[in-house]
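Lab notebook, design round three. We kept the backbone fixed and only want residue identities now. Task for the bench partner: fill in a sequence for the structure below.
Input structure tokens:
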């Protein structure tokens, strides 16, 4: 079965392929019932993006190929929603601030990955009212060529993990 829809003049085709059941080394294995495979093709341009919402479970059998775009940070900055999902190269002697004002715009579950390219300290500072959870109160990346992640886990709450120190 194939279904095509055209939101905003962009073609999206959803193809459902019914198969006889799980496959073994020599072909189908027994009458275990039908399984459905869904393939989603989105005809899009570089300036268009789509969110796909899945209700229920999603099983990926062959993996998902993805990447995190890279951002370069060479001066002090406030963490904000536009940095979520990026792999950020940060130099040394830079401060990343997490503020109450920006916190309200960052979605719970957002992740921020950092890789320190320069010597010195990449320091995280937070305003009063922000819960910043890290081993032994760590608030820095260990040093050059070390990496860490900040994840927002609740309103005004962040976890800091990776190669981190106090």
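Proposed sequence:
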């Amino acid at each position: 079965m194939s279904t095509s829809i055209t939101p905003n003049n962009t073609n999206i085709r959803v193809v459902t392929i019914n198969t006889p059941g799980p496959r073994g080394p020599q072909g189908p294995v027994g009458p275990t019932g039908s399984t459905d495979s869904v393939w989603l093709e989105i005809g899009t341009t570089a300036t268009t993006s789509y969110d796909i919402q899945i209700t229920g479970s999603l099983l990926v059998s062959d993996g998902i190929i993805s990447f995190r775009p890279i951002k370069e940070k060479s001066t002090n900055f406030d963490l904000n929603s536009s940095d979520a999902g990026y792999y950020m190269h940060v130099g040394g002697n830079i401060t990343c601030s997490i503020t109450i004002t920006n916190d309200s715009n960052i979605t719970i579950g957002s992740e921020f990955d950092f890789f320190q390219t320069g010597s010195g300290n990449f320091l995280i500072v937070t305003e009063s009212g922000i819960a910043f959870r890290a081993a032994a109160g760590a608030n820095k990346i260990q040093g050059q060529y070390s990496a860490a992640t900040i994840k927002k886990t609740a309103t005004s709450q962040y976890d800091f993990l990776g190669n981190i120190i106090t």
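Keep this in mind before ordering anything: The chain has one helix and 16 strands.
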